[in-house]
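If you are new to this repository, start here. Below is one unmodified record pulled from the training split, so you can see the exact layout before writing a loader.
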Amino acid sequence: MTRGTRLTPSIALTALLLLATAHAQDDDVPADESGDAGSDDAEPEDDLSRFRTPFDVLAERTIGTASTPVEFSWRRSRVMLALTGDHYFELNNFNTIRGGGMARFESSGLIFEVGLSRAWVWDTPSSELLALTPYRQPGRPKRVEVDFNVGVPLAEGVVTTFPRFFPAAQLVLNAYGGIHYLVYPTGFQGLKIREVGAALIAPALSAAELENLEDERLDAMQVDPGRYGLMAGFGNDIYFKQGLFISPRAMFSVPLLAPVSGSQLLFWADFSLAIGVAL
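And here is the target side for that same chain:
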């Protein structure tokens, strides 16, 4: 308009109608089509959105733990039976191996074992040469052995095996301690029942037993008088899902009873392998 132009009532009414129409159009625009509410990245809310947790938060949390492994529950076994084989490493020139059986029981998380074995002893080239001299080495002739052991589980878990076609297994690392008891049946020849009973609980072989064992010993051997001793060591129990298990073990003598048993074999080792089934 040029200066001095006057607004007529019709022109003023038309301007008001245009302003009202524009305001009404702004009110009709949906919220998702204007401002921030109308951005394409907005997601509709649902009833479960407040229960969702981001993955990075879940990854930093402890999802769950188990008190005992679940591949094979050996603690539920009533009894475990196994065949055993051992090789001794003694500080002499004789060879000794043994074979037998073992029964294992679980109680209060511990493993209790009772084993019965037969030990075989034979010469080596060194002991045969030693027999040609007046010198003798302490040793133990063929015999029967009884073991009483207690195993304490230190660590366990489910592991994969090699080769991979073998199934996963339950691995248990145990610490063992026990009593190693020797029985020489031929040593009781000519003894009375009371003498045999006293000999069975004595820590050392009697003079009569040592005399009876002269025919059993090897030529270069001096019979060790110790009847029993203490053992300690470590071993692994490898349980498969079906209940089969393999148990390699290394046990070492603890010569605490040597002063009362008179044993001269103070330090020696027993490497064994047990193969059995948990029932």
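Two things worth knowing about this chain: Confidence is low (pLDDT under 50) at residues 1-5, 33-39. The helical segments are 9-28, 55-59, 125-130, 193-201, 207-212, 258-261.
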